[in-house]
Design brief:
Structural class: alpha/beta
Largest sheet: 6 strands, parallel
Helix content: 40-55%
Order of helices and strands: HEEEEHEHEHEEEEHHHHHHHHHHHHHHH
Distance between the termini: 46 Å
Number of helices: 19
Radius of gyration: 21 Å
CATH topology of the largest domain: Dehydroquinate synthase-like, alpha domain
CATH class of the largest domain: Mainly Alpha
CATH architecture of the largest domain: Up-down Bundle
Number of strands: 10
Length: 419
């Protein structure tokens, strides 16, 4: 796949001229060596990594930057790095005189460097160490600010360097996470169509079709990924990168992030505030995609009621504080701003019930998605054992409150209420 050709842009029938400001994408064996010839005028470079990602690619990066002045920010690899104000400050302290930031890592390191780059005005590029998520080419940085999970519009890397010799040796859980993240697009694409029907949201068939094609391409890689086959890893990384570009084309994460991501964010945020374990992002997304398929199936089996469900303000605040604790007020304020709880979509649901049911029927069933995940050795028992039915039901009811986006979680809540 010629990703660099896609980067040149697309004049689309949706009426938009899709553009992406990434200059280079290299997904190949030995890609890190290309660093030596990229941006030669940037003599003062800051490397940002953690101990694990530096161990994976740091020496190769330093070798490629042998003729530059290099500073380093290396975070501990013992605990999960949280992309919060503390991590931002650690990078910002080293920016004096820096002309280029080189991030080494995957999800969190990518988001951290993207955020710092955008607000400092210093360009960055990312050296990928795992095919674990689709954010490499997206312009959103998934940060945790004031305890809230927030996707900040934060620009794009100048270049993505993905050395397949590094990627294939990533922890297998991270490779599986990338596979799971792609499977999650079934849910996200369905939510996008659903929001177009209910809210008249912008929709692009080209972006939808291209993202769907990336899912199909990825299904063929499952066995090879478990064997660390380099071509399979390359195909997965290409799919993740193209999906990221599609997000940039759309101007939002809509093609790639919906109810399955909201459930994943729920488990992460609740895990942080309660000091509880949670799965890596892509793993959670994979399992949550099964849950969102089950939600669609349950809606399809039921009759639409004659009334929209709502808690009283007092009941809602009590529920939110019990679940989200220190970040509850932020969630409540977000929903007040968006107006989801004051919106009465019943007439729209009645008017478009047939279209809504058709949209919900288009995606694979929960059992089909489980089989796709089993190809990469995902086991739903692991998910249920980790979180338990009660926590999962709370996620279905209240993960929607973490974001301003309409998804099947809102449809389910409007029609049938909460746990």
């Amino acid at each position: 796949m010629d990703i660099n050709k896609i980067l040149q842009g697309v004049e689309c029938s949706c009426g938009k001229n899709h553009q992406c400001d990434i200059e280079y994408v290299f997904i190949e064996n030995g890609a890190i060596k290309r660093l030596s010839k990229l941006y030669p005028d940037c003599k003062n470079v800051l490397i940002a990594a953690d101990e694990n990602t530096f161990a994976a690619a740091g020496e190769a990066v330093l070798s490629a930057l042998y003729n530059r002045n290099v500073k380093q920010v290396i975070f501990s690899g013992k605990n999960v790095l949280i992309p919060d104000e503390r991590a931002i400050d650690e990078v910002n302290k080293q920016l004096d005189g820096v002309e280029l930031i080189v991030g080494i890592g995957s999800g969190v390191m990518q988001d951290l460097c993207k955020y710092v780059s955008f607000f400092s005005g210093i360009p960055y590029l990312i050296v990928a160490t795992a095919p674990s998520m689709d954010g490499y080419a997206s312009d959103g940085a998934a940060m945790i600010l004031k305890g809230m999970k927030e996707t900040v519009k934060a620009g794009l890397p100048r270049a993505i360097i993905a050395d397949t010799d590094v990627l294939k040796n990533a922890p297998l859980e991270m490779i599986k996470a990338g596979y799971g993240d792609i499977i999650g697009k079934y849910s996200a694409l369905c939510d996008w169509k659903l929001s177009r029907a209910v809210n008249g949201e912008y929709f692009c068939q080209y972006i939808y079709d291209t993202t769907y094609k990336m899912i199909e391409n990825t299904l063929n890689t499952a066995k090879g990924l478990l064997e660390r086959d380099e071509e399979s890893v390359k195909a997965l990384m290409e799919a993740l990168t193209v999906v990221g570009i599609m997000m940039s084309f759309a101007g939002s994460s809509r093609p790639a992030s919906g109810s399955e991501h909201h459930l994943s964010h729920f488990f992460e945020i609740v895990g942080i505030v309660n000091n509880e374990n949670y799965f890596p992002h892509g793993i959670d997304v994979a399992y949550s995609t099964v849950v969102t398929a089950q939600i669609r199936e349950n809606i399809l089996k039921a009759d639409f009621p004659d009334k929209i469900f709502r808690l009283s303000d007092e009941e809602y605040a009590e529920k939110m504080k019990g679940i989200y604790k220190s970040v509850a007020e932020g969630c409540i304020a977000l929903q007040k701003k968006v107006g989801n709880y004051t919106a009465n979509r019943l007439e729209i649901y009645k008017e478009k019930e047939k279209e809504i049911r058709e949209i919900l029927s288009e995606m694979p069933s929960s059992n089909e998605i489980i089989k796709m995940l089993e190809l990469a050795e995902f086991d739903m028992t692991e998910f249920y054992n980790e979180y338990g039915i009660e926590k999962i039901e709370k996620a279905v009811s209240y993960a929607k409150d973490l974001k301003d986006r309409y998804t099947v979680l809102w449809l389910n809540y409007d029609l049938f209420g909460c746990q």
